[in-house]
């Protein structure tokens, strides 16, 4: 497919030519990703990864703008999530390639810099931040989710340049923090973009792609996700006289049981959203943390549960929280003891579900680029998690999806990403940029 926005005297490249250009960048991709993975950018500590991405962008001649996370300015927004970490001077980055002609349509590539905790390092074959390559896979926390995707976007841009051309429209590269617990990094970026658009300082991007590890599929819908912390205050006592106390862990386990019943109900076929009928177990209520007690011979005084819950995109987070809260309060009431207190805290994700229109022009062009590289149409996938795509859809109503490489063990031990898949995805993204943005010769 040719794009009318391509400068008339600039010939476009076929799949073979672009693929060849991408293949020659495999050493660049491996080195960049390996060094990126070696930076342990856990939530609250993303800045070294942001600095590294700034360096990668500078190597491509692109200057980054820093968009600081400022909770005070985000608090009033509907997509705001109560933070888990202090702002601490942390920032997102946005670098924009600006063409000579600006005749084409723009695109923003968004990717998150934060990675989730690793668990005990000894449980990894060679530690969680090795960035090593074994049998065609690159290993480490964040390799798949999602530093590989960020590297793919940079390599796609670099591949076009190696052919003597560049996109004939703005191309934004956006590295964000806090995707894994609040989404407030992208919220800050989208908020800054919206303000700049309204004051005519900036035009909106015409499309947004997020190269999350979607296993080479296009994302058509995502669930609502919210976090809860539940503090149960019991009555401590000597274990020898245990029945005079009240163990909050036991109440906590009853709360988990009642929420598991609700999870089961929401997974019943008759209660499902139509986009989730085919999946085995779309709604997942995860007990991610439990903390309680400090002595084997004492009934604990406090038990804290850290939960991640999800809901279909046709109910609001407020509705879902109200249902969940009622179930928790019922357990508290059943305990029938005035000393038991249950506090529910809302920290972290407050992320409504949403659907993405894959029939918009950029998404059709992306699917076509995939078809030309893979020889078949991409699958459209219903995601059982959340992504930052919600901010672009709900706040800016810009065409957006996630599309990225094949990864394994994300959030687990020995997370890794397929280098062959990175090459395929990079080829698709380079073709997409050529078709969507158009191309023009590199400046002399
Ligand atoms: Zn991710």
Can you offer a commentary on this structure?
- The chain has 444 residues and is an alpha+beta fold.
- The chain is 34% helix and 20% strand.
- The protein has helices at residues 15-23, 26-37, 47-59, 71-74, 143-162, 184-198, 248-267, 317-335, 361-374, 389-396, 419-437, and strands at residues 64-68, 91-97, 107-112, 133-134, 137-139, 165-167, 171-176, 208-210, 218-222, 224-233, 286-292, 302-311, 341-345, 350-351, 354-355, 380-383, 400-402, 407-408, 416-418, 439-441.
- The strands form five sheets. A six-stranded mixed beta sheet has the order 1-2-7-3-8-17, with helices on both faces. Strands 10, 11, 12, 13 and 14 form a five-stranded antiparallel beta sheet that branches.
- The longest helix has 20 residues, at 143-162.
- It is elongated, with a radius of gyration of 24 Å.
- The relative contact order is 0.21.
- It binds zinc ion (ZN).
- Zinc ion is lined by residues 112, 145-146, 179, 212.
- Zinc ion binds at residues 112, 145-146, 179, 212.
